[in-house]
Specification:
- By secondary structure, this protein is mainly alpha-helical.
- It has 3 domains: 72 residues; 72 residues; 70 residues, Membrane-bound Lytic Murein Transglycosylase D, Chain A (Roll).
- It contains 9 helices and 4 strands, in the order H-H-H-H-H-H-H-E-E-H-H-E-E.
- The strands form 2 sheets. Strands 1-4 form a two-stranded parallel sheet.
- Helix 3 runs antiparallel to helix 4.
- The protein is rod-shaped, with a radius of gyration of 34 Å.
- The chain starts with a helix and ends in an 8-residue tail after the last strand.
- The N terminus is likely disordered.
Length: 228
């Protein structure tokens, strides 16, 4: 009888301790455990001690199963959170053109994300979290690599220079552009729509702003400032 009472009290305490995780424990096993606990209490009150003990033991088994279910749910939520973080980081890196600037590293990060997503779909939560974490770490490496790169200007405003008039040839020759005048067709092709006569690359005017296309490995942002 004492053992039966101890089982009932123990289950009551266990149920109370799990209340903060009620949203996770609201599963079929937990609900069945509570039913069995109530049945054990009713049997005990009626003096059916052996029956109460049986209900209590069964209720305890269901409580343990519900805890495992809750643990799996919690791990699944964590894995989904990592997936969401990883996806946001990939999108941000893609917006910054890192998939072109750091093609190999970005592909590795993408592959790790894809593996993590497949594992998440298979409910392999622990392994999926590892893949997402590795992908995020790879993206951190890319961020560091980007920080170490020299950032070149993306835009150039044509200047009025009487002694050396700007042209696509001379703009391409600037060190901060391509340091090579033979690269001028890149500038021309990208900025045809800016020209008053798109078919005449020799006719450009002060104040026109040209975009400087990136070459492999270059990072370009902002407009060149002649006073900097």
């Amino acid at each position: 009888m004492k053992k039966t009472l101890a089982l009932i009290v123990g289950l009551a305490v266990l149920g109370s301790a799990l209340l903060p995780a009620q949203n996770l424990l609201d599963n079929e096993d937990y609900r069945r455990a509570r039913e069995l606990r109530q049945m054990a209490q009713e049997a005990y009150d009626a003096g059916e001690y052996d029956e109460a003990a049986e209900y209590s033991a069964e209720a305890e088994e269901y409580f343990e199963r519900s805890i495992e279910t809750a643990r799996r749910l919690r791990e699944g939520y964590r894995a989904e959170n990592f997936r969401s973080r990883n996806e946001r980081r990939l999108n941000r890196a893609r917006d910054r053109d890192f998939h072109n600037l750091f093609d190999t590293e970005f592909s590795e990060a993408q592959d790790l994300y894809d593996e993590g997503r497949d594992l998440l779909d298979d409910e392999e939560y622990g392994e999926s979290i590892e893949r997402f974490s590795d992908s995020i770490a790879k993206l951190d490496e890319i961020d560091a690599m980007y920080t170490e790169k020299d950032v070149l200007p993306r835009y150039y405003e044509v200047r009025l220079i009487p002694e050396r008039r700007d042209s696509f040839w001379r703009i391409a020759e600037y060190e901060f552009v391509y340091d090579d005048p033979w690269e001028w067709p890149k500038l021309y092709e990208r900025n045809k729509d800016v020209l008053r006569d798109p078919d005449n690359p020799h006719l450009i005017h002060p104040g026109q702003v040209f975009e400087i296309p990136e070459r492999d490995g270059e990072v370009r942002e902002g407009q060149w400032d002649p006073d900097s």
